[in-house]
């Protein structure tokens, strides 16, 4: 089939959309590049993107597109795995603004929602009513209800609540030609009334009646009777015995028939009590064999499976190890969750099932829990499947394409054996097999060779063979993810020609011009067409500064880590991605940036990004990246956007001027040293009326930001005045305290406190005698050549300690993270960089190695973990040390503080910086009790808390422990005991301004006098 084309010039369409819709209309290259693909193997650059501010605006956008003949594609979270949400069309992204819960009726257990609302957000808003939407796919933190309806999503909870189609009561829909109506179950009498009214609506209902009558036998016989049939249009919902339900017929149509504007949903009570039973097996096929027996003796609300291959991948990737530790000894597992009105009822179901199957709770192959936290820990291992299997450590890239087939549960074991034989035949090694086994749905990712012509040909042959196999088992090509482009071409193999013809008739009835998401489901693009990679993809090779050792030393392969899962679009929990949470913009998510970097690689001729490293589109998308490294730990595939940003900036600005902030804050360690002779004068200048503002403008600093205050005495001055005895580097008690810029020049009490605590713990502290730096600020601003020079100098200074294996204790998490992660990649092949990565420790890690009893603080603490610590060093050691110090720690799970080093100080970032902080951290600090200890090891976090209108200041762990050595902490605002440099007094600031004015006036007078004397 031919690609859809516009019937009028694009600029006229853009102008009309901007004039007639209340929407953000974006046809720029950056936006088009960010939306060019979803979570699938497919890629089609959109015509443009419309982000409606209201549902009415979205409906109007469809009407404008129809006037110009522009194809339309609705999009929510963009996580589709079959190519449903990528197309050469106008993409309508409902997720930014159209996310209202319009109404809730607790009595009828229904609600009405807009299409952009995220499932977790919906369930949070329903929580006060004790209700939830039943289906819960693994993308629940970021998938939109509109997308769930378009895809007929399921998830593990479908075992109890069914698919999305089973939970939709009515839909308000809009056809491409402008008919807007509510649809649902429709009696014969109602259809007669609609017919009598005439018009387009009557035409559609009369057409539906004819379609069902003409294909009645095929519809009744042609749909497999299995719980997870998601493939194809739901023509069976139009059967008379099923109430002629037009809403349910449209669910799962993937935006190819109508645009969904509102949905009325059925809700279910939140289970008050749950328990989890895990059964171990020596083989995933035998686990599948046992499913029918388990269902015969029990009614679990979830029955999930994961195999030994996935567990192996988790161990190799050091991911979800706590979850694995909670599983019984086995090679494969079934996880059964039970619900009840009491804990006893939920537990009894599990025990009765064990008894009926001849197992006991104490069997080594059995694990049982009715502890919600432990249950979630075990279920995380299963939910993490897609991310864990996407980038195996053996470097064989795995892909979608046959990732969610479904068969009758009682035939599942045999199907898996045949599928495994097919894997062997195609030399696809041993992909992990997991999924919703209680409903016969199997997930996997397969190492298709999608970069070569032979590999793509094998891919096509495999999916054709697999489609025939699943059809032979009476199954479905898709049990959850839909058809899209991945399975649209294969539908005849499952349904036969008559039903597929009926699908075409349904499409022609609702969308006769084929403008709604064309090329999907009906008259589909080929399964091996429009691939994101493919044999024609030839990206440019690039010399890079970072080594990318975990990506075959390839920046291109690093960018390919992003497979579109979309966890970076979650709204709460973890760190990733703060800029998306503040802006709700795809381009400002980790995924959106990765997509633009992919387009920048110049692998496709039709890429919207055409100027490589000099791309302004990529630069603008990366501009709001906080370089928090949250994605390095929170992204299931380990995307490290902070590193990619630094790499990009290094190339983008190579050989040309940089933004002023790169010189002012990128070179902060140097300026801090130069300020040392007169810190008071420097502070006065930085805070003087008039002068401060001018200086900020010159330095590229946000005018609303207050400059940090330099300490009167730096840590190094204090240290040298102390004249300590230098320990031998080989002394087992010796430790090097790293003098980072922030703990040295701004908050020296942190480093001074660390010395006291380390010495109290029995360590002999030393500090490098020559100036050293971790190069953090140069790295974050992409000045990587300078960063490498600084790091090499630092390694030379630390040489004797590295040779002796002396621990290096870092106090500033971002600096410690540089040594652990960035330096070895930036100085690839440098043994000392690798040694330093192994020897650097956090304060808590070092103190736990000592036989030291911390002071008993007996206080509640509110703790903000620095993002780099969250991503690189983790917080386990700190948590244990706080426990030993009897600090009842509430470790916030509120994401990034928003300052993120230089980010929050840069001009143009202040608003986003504070918006990120207000998402969680700043409100949590304001809510802390007056006697709470506020802990934040990061200088950025402490600064944001102090400047974020919280009325509080935070302490470093070292300061809290040192204060505890002096005795009990004060009952009110214990942070007041910490020594912090103060902003110069108002008279001093004004005196500085006056002095500067006088100096300027004197200079001007002298200049005028000189000019007069020089006149002839």
Question: How would you describe the overall organization of this protein?
Answer:
The protein is an alpha/beta fold and 1016 residues long. 43% of the residues lie in helices and 11% in strands. The protein contains 46 helices and 24 strands. The strands form 7 sheets. Strands 5-6-10-8-9 form a 5-stranded antiparallel beta sheet. The radius of gyration is 31 Å and the shape is globular. The mean pLDDT is 94.
SSE inventory with pairings:
Elements: H1 10-20, E1 23-26, H2 29-34, E2 48-52, H3 55-68, E3 72-75, E4 90-93, E5 101-105, E6 110-113, H4 119-126, E7 131-132, H5 145-151, H6 158-161, E8 168-174, E9 180-183, H7 188-197, H8 199-214, H9 216-222, H10 246-250, E10 259-266, E11 268-269, E12 273-281, H11 284-289, H12 291-297, E13 302-307, H13 308-316, H14 321-325, E14 332-340, H15 343-356, E15 366-369, H16 372-383, H17 385-390, H18 412-425, E16 434-436, E17 441-443, H19 453-472, H20 491-495, H21 497-510, H22 555-559, H23 578-583, H24 590-600, H25 616-623, H26 630-634, H27 641-652, H28 660-664, H29 668-674, H30 679-687, H31 691-699, H32 715-722, E18 734-737, H33 741-746, H34 748-760, E19 764-766, H35 776-780, H36 784-804, E20 808-810, H37 813-826, H38 831-839, E21 840-842, H39 843-847, E22 859-864, H40 867-873, H41 876-884, E23 887-891, H42 910-918, H43 921-927, E24 933-936, H44 939-947, H45 957-965, H46 986-1014
Parallel strand pairs: 2-4, 3-4, 18-19, 18-20, 20-21, 22-23, 22-24
Antiparallel strand pairs: 1-2, 5-6, 6-10, 7-11, 8-9, 8-10, 12-14, 12-15, 13-14, 16-17
């Amino acid at each position: 089939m031919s690609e859809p084309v516009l019937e009028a010039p694009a600029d006229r369409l853009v102008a009309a959309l901007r004039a007639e819709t209340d929407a953000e209309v974006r046809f720029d290259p950056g936006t088009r590049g960010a939306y060019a693909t979803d979570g699938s193997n497919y890629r089609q650059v959109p015509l443009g993107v419309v982000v409606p501010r209201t549902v009415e605006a979205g409906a109007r956008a469809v009407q404008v597109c129809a006037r110009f003949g522009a194809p339309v594609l609705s999009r929510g979270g963009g996580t589709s795995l079959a190519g449903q949400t990528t197309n050469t069309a106008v993409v309508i992204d409902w997720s930014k603004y159209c996310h209202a819960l319009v109404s809730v009726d607790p009595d009828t257990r229904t609600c009405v929602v807009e299409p952009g609302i995220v499932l977790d957000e919906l369930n949070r808003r329903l929580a006060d009513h004790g209700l939830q939407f039943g289906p819960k796919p693994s993308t629940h933190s970021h998938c939109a209800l509109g997308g769930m309806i378009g895809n007929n999503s399921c998830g593990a909870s479908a075992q109890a609540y069914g698919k999305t189609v089973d939970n939709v009561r009515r839909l308000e829909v809009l056809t491409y030609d402008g008919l807007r109506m509510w649809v649902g179950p429709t009696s014969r009498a109602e259809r007669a009334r609609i017919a009598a009214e005439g018009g387009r609506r009557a035409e559609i209902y009369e057409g539906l009646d004819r379609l069902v009558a003409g294909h009645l036998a095929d519809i009744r016989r042609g749909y497999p009777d299995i719980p997870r049939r998601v493939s194809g249009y739901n023509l069976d919902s139009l059967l008379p015995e099923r109430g002629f339900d037009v809403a349910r017929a449209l669910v799962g149509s993937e935006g190819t028939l109508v645009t969904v504007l509102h949905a009325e949903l059925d809700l279910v009570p939140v289970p008050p009590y749950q328990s989890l039973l895990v059964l171990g097996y020596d083989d995933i096929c035998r686990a599948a064999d046992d499913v029918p027996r388990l269902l015969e003796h029990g009614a679990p609300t979830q029955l999930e499976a994961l195999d030994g291959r996935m567990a192996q991948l988790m161990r190799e990737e050091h991911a979800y190890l706590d979850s694995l530790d909670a599983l019984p000894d086995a090679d494969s597992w079934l996880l059964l969750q039970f619900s009840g009105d009491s804990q006893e009822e939920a537990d009894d179901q599990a025990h009765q099932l064990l008894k009926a199957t001849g197992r006991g709770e104490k069997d080594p192959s059995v694990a049982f829990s009715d502890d919600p936290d432990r249950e979630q820990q075990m279920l995380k291992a299963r939910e993490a499947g897609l991310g864990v299997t996407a980038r195996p450590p053996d470097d064989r890239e795995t892909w979608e394409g046959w990732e969610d087939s479904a068969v009758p549960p009682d035939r599942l074991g045999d199907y898996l054996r045949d599928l495994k034989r097919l894997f062997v035949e195609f030399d696809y090694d041993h992909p992990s097999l997991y999924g919703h086994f209680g409903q016969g749905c199997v997930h996997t990712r397969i190492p298709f060779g999608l970069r070569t012509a032979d590999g793509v040909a094998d891919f096509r042959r495999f999916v054709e063979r697999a489609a025939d196999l699943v059809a032979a088992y009476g199954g479905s090509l898709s049990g959850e993810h839909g058809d899209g482009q991945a399975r649209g071409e294969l539908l005849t193999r499952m349904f036969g020609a008559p039903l597929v013809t009926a699908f075409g008739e349904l499409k022609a009835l609702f969308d006769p011009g084929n403008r709604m998401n064309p090329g999907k489901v009906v008259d589909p693009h080929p399964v091996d067409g429009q691939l994101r990679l493919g044999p024609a993809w030839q990206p440019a090779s690039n010399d890079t500064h970072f080594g990318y050792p975990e990506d075959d030393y390839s920046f291109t392969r690093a960018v390919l880590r992003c497979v579109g899962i979309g966890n970076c679009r979650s709204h709460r929990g973890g760190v990733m991605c703060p800029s998306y949470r503040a802006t709700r913009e795809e381009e400002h998510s980790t995924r959106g940036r990765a997509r633009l970097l992919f387009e920048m690689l110049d692998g496709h001729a039709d890429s919207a990004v055409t100027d490589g490293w000099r791309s302004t589109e990529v630069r603008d998308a990366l501009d709001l990246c906080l370089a928090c490294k949250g994605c390095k730990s929170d992204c299931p595939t380990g995307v490290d956007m902070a590193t990619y940003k630094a790499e990009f900036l290094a190339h983008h600005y190579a050989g040309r001027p940089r933004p002023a902030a790169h010189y002012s804050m990128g070179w902060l360690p140097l300026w801090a040293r130069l300020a040392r002779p007169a810190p008071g004068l420097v502070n006065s200048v930085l805070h003087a009326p008039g002068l401060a503002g001018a200086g900020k403008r010159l330095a590229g600093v946000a005018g609303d930001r207050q400059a940090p205050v330099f300490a009167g005495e730096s840590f190094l001055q204090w240290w040298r005045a102390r004249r300590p005895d230098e320990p031998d580097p080989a002394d087992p008690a010796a430790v090097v305290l790293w003098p980072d810029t922030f703990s040295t020049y701004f908050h020296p009490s942190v480093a001074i406190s660390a010395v006291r605590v380390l010495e109290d713990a029995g360590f002999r502290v030393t500090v490098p005698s020559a100036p050293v730096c971790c190069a953090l600020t140069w790295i974050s601003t992409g000045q990587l050549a300078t960063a490498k020079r600084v790091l090499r100098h630092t390694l030379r200074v630390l040489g004797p300690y590295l040779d002796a294996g002396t621990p290096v204790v870092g106090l500033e998490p971002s600096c410690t993270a540089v040594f652990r992660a960035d330096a070895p990649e930036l100085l690839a092949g440098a043994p000392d960089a690798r040694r330093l990565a192994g020897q650097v420790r956090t304060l808590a890690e070092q103190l736990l190695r000592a036989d030291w009893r911390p002071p008993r603080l007996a206080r509640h603490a509110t703790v903000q973990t620095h993002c780099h610590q969250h991503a690189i060093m983790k917080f386990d050691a700190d948590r244990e040390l706080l426990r030993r110090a009897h600090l009842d720690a509430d470790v916030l799970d509120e994401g990034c503080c928003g300052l993120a080093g230089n980010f929050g100080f840069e001009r143009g970032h202040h608003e986003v910086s504070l918006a990120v902080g207000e998402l969680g951290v700043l409100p949590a600090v304001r809510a802390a009790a007056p006697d709470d200890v506020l802990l934040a090891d990061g200088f950025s976090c402490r600064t944001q808390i102090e400047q974020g209108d919280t009325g509080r200041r935070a302490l470093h762990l070292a300061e809290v422990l040192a204060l505890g050595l002096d005795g009990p902490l004060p009952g009110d605002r214990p942070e007041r005991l910490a020594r912090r440099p103060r902003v110069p007094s108002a008279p001093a600031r004004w005196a500085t301004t006056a002095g500067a004015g006088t100096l300027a006036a004197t200079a001007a007078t002298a200049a005028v006098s000189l000019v007069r004397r020089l006149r002839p």
